[in-house]
Amino acid sequence: QVQLVESGGGLVQAGGSLRLSCAASGSTWFINVMGWYRQAPGKQRDLVASISSGGSTNYADSVKGRFTISRDNAKNTVYLQMNSLKPEDTAVYYCNAVRIRDDYVYWGQGTQVTVSS
Fold first, then answer.
1. Is the pLDDT of residue 100 over 90?
2. Which one of 37, 45, 80, 81 is CB 3.0 to 4.6 Å from 68, fit for a cystine?
């Protein structure tokens, strides 16, 4: 089992920045890709960014150039630096981790990000 705990959400004005953290514990040696998803009210949960254990990254078009995902494998932690935030970035942000052998996905509890205009 893997447990994911997110932190760093909050309320910020448009143009501001936030940094989200997600700490993994448990059977972390089984994890390959880690990532961030977000879900706004009434909408589906969508990928924001992901990063492999080797450091390869993938971003949603809507956040390219503004958000940066990074990973500290020694601390089993993934980060999402969010700059130039927009009101449309408002959502609950979820961390996830994918297990190597069968692509099983673990989810964190989510952290609210609210961007005011």
1. no
2. 81
